[in-house]
């Protein structure tokens, strides 16, 4: 199980949770106002496939509605893709989000890993990767971009040679772009028609709504048809479907998020970099991967929890030891308290 989040009640209000990578600006006020008015209509069934919301997202992205699929959070679509494609061999570029492995294991796939190296800041050795693909011939290659937990992002031009290889091998390239909105950098979205590519997106992270569960996937018509052919009906609740146009139209909230994130990420990067007992890896995500030099993450997590600060250890990420922790970018006050707490730990 993932080792983050899950605080409820009084304890949740007392904790500063740096373990979850969601927008700390909170739920947009416009959305809350609309959802309250929608509560009496919970007596009605939602659209069976969320077609109205799909059309809204497709129009927003300038894509066709049959190139898009909705999910009850991005995680549903990870498992749905694994079941629909059911590949014999999967190559997962690691360290990365653990749900990919579990989803493909449940589909009966053989899981193989391509490990990136800490000394290279976890950047992919492209020659080694192509050699691995050539010898293994996986039907699916999985990449998180920007990657969770390293924060590493690849520009579309850097991934085109890999897309060509996947196309030649008649495989699939699964790319998780759940954190792409925080990067202000280009997506692979313009490649979905030409290549066997499936892109995963999460509205949960961008708009701070993990409790509402809302994600979507993009791919060519053939891929989306495969997923829709086995997708259960009514997986998206009516409140989540109602949220889609409200969120996409709230450009002020999105712009405020990007402006806030740009400033706070820079502040946290500089502050963390002054702590001698910790190495901070460069990140394009809304979080930082850090390596402790003299103590383990579990001990630090327990010590900080006593100060009301919750962090993410990385022991469940393949290729990372208990020396690694992941820290989300939070508000200025919270970030300052984190830095103060870390300095008190005498790392």
Automatic annotation (TrEMBL):
Residue ranges occupied by any Aminotransferase class I/classII large domain in the UniProt entry: 14-340
InterPro entries to which the protein is assigned, alphabetical: Aminotransferase_I/II_large, CobD, NHTrfase_class1_PyrdxlP-BS, PyrdxlP-dep_Trfase, PyrdxlP-dep_Trfase_major, PyrdxlP-dep_Trfase_small
Gene3D superfamilies: Aspartate Aminotransferase, domain 1, Type I PLP-dependent aspartate aminotransferase-like (Major domain)
GO BP term (any one): cobalamin biosynthetic process
Gene Ontology MF terms: pyridoxal phosphate binding; threonine-phosphate decarboxylase activity
Reaction equation(s) it catalyzes: O-phospho-L-threonine + H(+) = (R)-1-aminopropan-2-yl phosphate + CO2
Enzyme class: lyase
Transmembrane segments: none
UniProt keyword annotations, A-Z: Cobalamin biosynthesis, Lyase, Pyridoxal phosphate
Presence of the UniProt keyword Lyase in the record: yes
EC id: 4.1.1.81
Pathway connected to this protein: Cofactor biosynthesis; adenosylcobalamin biosynthesis
Keyword tRNA processing: no
Purpose of the protein: Decarboxylates L-threonine-O-3-phosphate to yield (R)-1-amino-2-propanol O-2-phosphate, the precursor for the linkage between the nucleotide loop and the corrin ring in cobalamin.
NCBIfam families associated with the record: L_thr_O3P_dcar (TIGR01140)
Name used for this protein in its record: threonine-phosphate decarboxylase
